[in-house]
């Protein structure tokens, strides 16, 4: 492979994927993010999230999970350093410009690092009038589907330690086994298109212990788990293609080939799941692990 081709097809080496991230973020917020609502609800119900809960959401994206926690009375802080476009949407949802200072302080969205969270709420973790520490940490972005998708998560969880209380529950989320996730057959398109060039970020089958391995690396103590059905339902094929591409799981394939090729292949892979009325329906199962901070 020539140096020119390597620069084109190795995004982690410096070249940016040929992806419109603003459009991806909007499609995620408007189409795809709601598919995980049953998961968020199940976790919040199990942990009795309410007015006494102070949530630190790692990888908060466009903020739907935090919005749901806030609707239960929780105080929420979201952090996401990977997608400024999604963070902007989260701020629009959670902290409108016309809100008062106190209300805005109860919903903090940060495009940055945990150090930025500490600076925003005070070095001791005390955000002014609020209690001094978070008592729930969530990492709702599912792992175990793309090679290397958990890289850095254990380090991030460890870094959150000074901001939370001892024994605080931490929620990790992963894709269920391929035989329980019909979307797996569509996600294999990413591997098919990206693997010939050995592009990082290819799909792989979810493994049973993916979440436990992350918890172990972060020094967390597992304390329960569960599975939640999260079917992916779309109005039509075009809606499904936009939603699935917004996950970022196909970005490596777009980089390795082009947008049109990926859309064509995904469209073909979706046809078995299109119903007579044109809608698309794909049953899936996601798994969550509750672990405790040391």
UniProtKB/TrEMBL annotation:
Keywords: Methyltransferase, Transferase. It is an enzyme of class 2 (transferase). The keyword Nucleus does not apply. One of its GO terms (molecular function) is methyltransferase activity. GO terms for biological process: methylation. Its EC number is 2.1.1.-. InterPro entries: SAM-dependent_MTases_sf (IPR029063). It comes from the Bacteria. The keyword Transmembrane does not apply. This is Class I SAM-dependent methyltransferase. It comes from Streptomyces bluensis.
């Amino acid at each position: 492979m020539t140096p020119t081709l390597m620069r084109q097809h190795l995004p982690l080496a410096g070249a940016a994927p040929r992806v419109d991230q603003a459009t991806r973020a909007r499609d995620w917020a408007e189409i795809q993010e709601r598919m995980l609502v049953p998961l968020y609800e199940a976790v919040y119900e199990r942990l009795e999230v309410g007015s006494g809960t102070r949530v630190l959401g790692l990888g908060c994206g466009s903020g739907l999970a935090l919005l749901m926690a806030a609707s239960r009375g929780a105080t929420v802080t979201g952090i996401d350093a990977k997608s400024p476009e999604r963070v902007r949407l989260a701020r629009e949802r959670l902290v409108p410009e016309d809100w008062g200072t106190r209300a805005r302080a109860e919903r903090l969205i940060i495009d940055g690092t945990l150090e930025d969270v500490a600076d925003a709420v005070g070095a001791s973790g005390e955000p002014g009038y609020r209690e001094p520490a978070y008592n729930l940490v969530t990492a709702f972005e599912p792992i175990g589907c793309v090679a290397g998708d958990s890289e850095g998560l254990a380090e991030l969880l460890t870094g959150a330690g000074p901001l939370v209380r001892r024994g605080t529950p931490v929620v990790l989320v992963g894709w269920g086994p391929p035989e329980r996730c019909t979307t797996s057959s569509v996600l294999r398109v990413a591997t098919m298109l990206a693997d010939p060039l050995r592009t990082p970020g290819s799909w792989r089958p979810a493994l049973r212990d993916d979440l436990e391995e992350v918890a172990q690396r972060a020094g967390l103590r597992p304390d329960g788990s569960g599975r939640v059905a999260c079917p992916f339902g779309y109005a039509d094929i075009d809606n499904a293609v936009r939603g699935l591409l917004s996950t970022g799981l196909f970005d490596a394939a777009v980089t390795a080939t082009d947008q049109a090729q990926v859309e064509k292949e995904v469209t073909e892979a979706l046809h078995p799941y299109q119903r007579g009325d044109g809608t698309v329906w794909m049953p899936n199962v996601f798994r969550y692990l509750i672990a405790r901070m040391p």
